[in-house]
KIF-binding protein (Parambassis ranga), 637 residues
Amino acid sequence: MASLSSEEWRAICDKFTNAQNLTDVESRNDPENDPFRSKYKARELLREIYCLLKSFEPGEGEEDRGADISEQRPTEEPVDGQTEDWFSRGFSGDSPAGLRAAKLGAVEYYLGVNHVDTEELSAGQEHLMNCMKLLEGCRVSPENVSLFIHGRNQLGILWAGRDETETAQGFLETAESIYQRYMKEDGSPPTDMTEYFTTGENQLTHQERTKRFELAYTHTMYYLAQVYKNLGETERAATYCHNTLQRQLRFNQFSPMEWALNAATLSQYYITKGRYMEGRHCLSAATVISGLAGEIPSEAAAQESETESERREQLRQKRAEIARCWIKYCLNILQDSKKLLEDNIGELDTDRQDELKRARRQEEEEEEKGRKSAMLFGSEDTFDSIASLEEKVMCLLPLDFTEARSVFLVGQNYVTQAKEYFQMDGYVTDHIEILQDHSALFRSLAFFEEDVERRCKMHKRRIDMLEPICKDLNAQYYLMIRRQLMFELAETYNEMMDLKLTLANRQADTQSLDNHTIKKFNHLCSASAKYFQMFLDSLCSPEGKVPEHLEQEVLRPALVARFRVARLHSRLINSAPSAQLDSLNKSLENYKYVVQYCEAHPEAAAEVETELELSKEMVGLLPLKINRLKARMEANN
């Protein structure tokens, strides 16, 4: 075998350039009935390159690492403990034989990716493992470290796609170890794989080499985040996702809207863990970075192409989705604060409130400084914008009405933004979910409000936004949503009823309530009972038959609804004894249902322990009250 001449080498480089162009550019225009046409052409060129490289004869004393590669079977990935050996054993990547092995490995790599892209996974795996085999004897060097990492990244993706998550984890963690060790021991901008087949005048700059190498490692971090998520290691997955986002900004390797959505999605993990500072930072960064996507000027709307119109629509949708993530942030921080501050009857514990206010000031401010330094996104151009947005909403749990209201107003602003895109006409489910979140914001704020009348007005706002929707929704297509709305409306009327009675009792005892107050109380009581009953009726068969067995997802709501209906009927204020007797009988009937259902289905008792205990008590007491009322009625007759 003879050495390659300069003309033969230039021909190889031209073939490689053509293969890259076919893969990255021409393939986008392939017809639907032949979607891989360009990639098949690229594959043939890569095979030709491989054969030409194989014809190159190694110098004296050099090992031919590429012999009979096409016939070799895939080998197992080296275990993690072997990673360090690659930095000290074998021959250098820049020796003639080592460089030849790297070039052959690169062709195997590109063939592997080509087969994977054309959905020939087994062939793709074989080529990628051939690449790993060729590199086994090479120490990691600036000439081949990029190929080491790219090859393992691709194998990680391939095995993850087969749901072999632990196998994928091994390849990707090895890639991570190689990168970290290389940066520690060398760190110079390494050769990019494309440079194996580039003539001298077309070599990359150090800056471009660094950018491409760092992008490969960013992909490693991204894929590891997915792997850890699939393995249930959510904290580790979040850390890798956060680091991926930081690196994408640092090296300017991101699509603004995609980055923003990923950051907003990560915020939802932090929120569920009560890490509101991190959640707020992710959302602030998402909002700022999404602004980099830009908009088409309105005056150009008439001339814009269909593609640009679609892009505008996608931008609007993604920004609305980020707004929804902000809503969840505001809602969750208010709800967590409510849980922390409520007493055993769900009211504000003022002693606990004062205690928390005293304790949090210095301690949480110091903690914030320490945690914040490790999580920052952005560059000099965006730091100030992100920080400015963060200042508009607190990340500490609100402890009084003023703080809660500031969070509520931010949430309400994002509700308006989200509804502009997710309108009822076209996005029914999304629109209603946003309204439900808006209602929940009002409910959380009401907890902090000391003025009972103002609390009532907040709950009235909830009814005004949900009741028309509930009435208009098609019961056949939106049954589950209507059930949610009916239950929430019933609870909201119930809360208003309790608040009205509390307000009235501050002024006079129940027996002395004026007719207006009694009428208002009974209206709220009846409205609550009506919606609870509507919920229960929705569980019945088309013939109106009550189900003998309640499904798990509606078991507790159904039994609670029965208990509440019983309680509401017993609380109605009736001047006529006959109406009072009717209400008490309906109350007893529903209390009995709760008791009897739990007796027939013992597993249900654990779902409604408190309600069941009170129902049993009322089943014993109500008959006595009913009998006394009947006796009085007979005596009066």
Summary: DSSP finds 21 helices and no strands in the chain.
